[in-house]
């Protein structure tokens, strides 16, 4: 897996420019706000969970500092595909049981 360093990053996933933030140190937690309209800037402290995990907080497509998607590609399968593409981008293997993906869905 890529050695993640705290900071702000951009990459292209599924043809969309995706912004993400990295903070903390420890096992990886990928956090996704469940957008559209909500992004990682709304999460200020993560209840200090970044004291013991590395948080990779994705700005969803069309939200925050990420670019827009084509057409109506803002459905849950599109977001899930972006998280999976991020996993592949990082070289994170599925067999890693010390990591977690967290997706927050808005009501």
What's the level 1 CATH class?
Answer: Alpha Beta
Task: Determine the structural class based on helices, strands and strand pairing.
Answer: alpha/beta
- In total, the number of strands is 5
Strand content: 25-35%
- The helix content, as a percent range, equals 10-25%
Output the number of helix runs: 1
In the CATH hierarchy, what is the architecture at level 2?
3-Layer(aba) Sandwich
Biggest sheet statistics: 5 strands, mixed
What keyword list fits this structure?
107 residues, alpha/beta, Rossmann fold, five-stranded mixed sheet, 14% helix
Characterize the structure shown.
- Helices cover 14% and strands 29% of the residues.
- The longest helix is centred in the last third of the chain and has 15 residues, at 76-90.
- A hairpin with a 2-residue loop joins strand 1 (7-13) and strand 2.
- By secondary structure, it is α/β, with parallel strands linked by helices.
- 26% of the residues are buried.
- Strands 1-2-4-3-5 form a 5-stranded mixed beta sheet.
- It has one helix at residues 76-90; strands at residues 7-13, 16-24, 28-32, 54-59, 100-103.
- The chain has 1 helix and 5 strands.
SSE layout:
Layout (H helix, E strand, L loop, with lengths): L6 E7 L2 E9 L3 E5 L21 E6 L16 H15 L9 E4 L4
